[in-house]
Amino acid sequence: MKHSLTRLLRLCAAAVPVLGLFAADAGAQSKTPLLVYTAIETDAMKAYKTAFEKANPNIEIRWVRDSTGVITAKLLAEKANPQADVVLGLAASSLALLSQEGMMLPYEPVGFSQLTRRYSDQKQPPAWVGMDVWGAVICYNTVEAKKLGLPKPETWKDLTKPIYKGKISMPHPASSGTGYLDVTAWLQMWGEAEGWKYMDALHENIAQYVHSGSKPCKQAGAGEFPIGISFEFRAHQVQRSGAPIDLIFPKEGLGWDIEASGIIKNTKKLDAAKKLVDWMASKEANQISSTWWAIVAYPGVAQKMEGIPDNYESMLVKPNDFEWAAKNRDRILTEWSKRYNAKAEAKGS
Fold this sequence. Notes:
Elements: H1 4-15, E1 32-38, H2 42-55, E2 59-65, H3 68-77, E3 86-91, H4 92-100, E4 104-105, E5 129-141, H5 142-148, E6 168-171, H6 177-203, E7 206-210, H7 215-222, E8 227-231, H8 232-240, E9 245-248, E10 256-264, H9 270-280, H10 283-289, E11 295-296, H11 312-315, H12 322-327, H13 329-340
Parallel strand pairs: 1-2, 1-3, 6-7, 6-8
Antiparallel strand pairs: 3-10, 4-10, 5-8, 5-9, 5-10, 5-11
């Protein structure tokens, strides 16, 4: 039986309007429309769509886009009557949950053997196939910190020091995949007792839990809060835009997840769905991913990014058990919300 939190999320998700749905153009009647649910950053949606449709002119991607938590809840709410054909760019921890619920169609795409195996589902054939890795980072506004006399933190545990009280924003783990990868990393790194103890102490210094993994770094860049817990792609983008932030990669290790793709079982567009998943496994798609991500599934394609350390991949927390994170999602989010939800940002803010 699902916990009340998941039931609430499902009800909310069912009421969420379709976001980011690309309308068919006048000449699209002869194309196969493929309904694709995604949590990828809007920066990437157009690039993937344009390149895929150029290679597959008889297929049209129609996006439904929202945050990881909302898309996950929406898919679960639609379990008895699935609407999506493909899930693209959703967190592996969410796709593992959908797979456990029997909603994913195992499929090994063309060219799968070329990809880094540990960044996809370990079952054979895989229920989901990795695109790229995203990991935790702290965004630290050097100008605001100097004004406030805030030292530069070096570790996760530094963030519990009283000097940072009210100065930190973090993603809400029920809404944001980045927030959830932080929470599950701390619980795996330190064990559950110490992990919750750490989050209790961190909570004392949190100003706000926001419903986006990007927003804390944007807030830090704008000086709204001097410190934001975010992820490396957005941190790199904010820094490149000229914001006075340093990127901090805490020494204990970085929580991380994988953006991945998979086919929804019982899709009526199976051939088109396979073509999209095949294409997402291609070198071309991975080259597009490497525009934003420091680690992609296709070896040798990733580019060096300013501000991202050369040993970034080795800093990722290991092991990172996505099956455990999926199986315990309801329990973890229920406990987290009971303890910390009082500081959650209002929806729609």
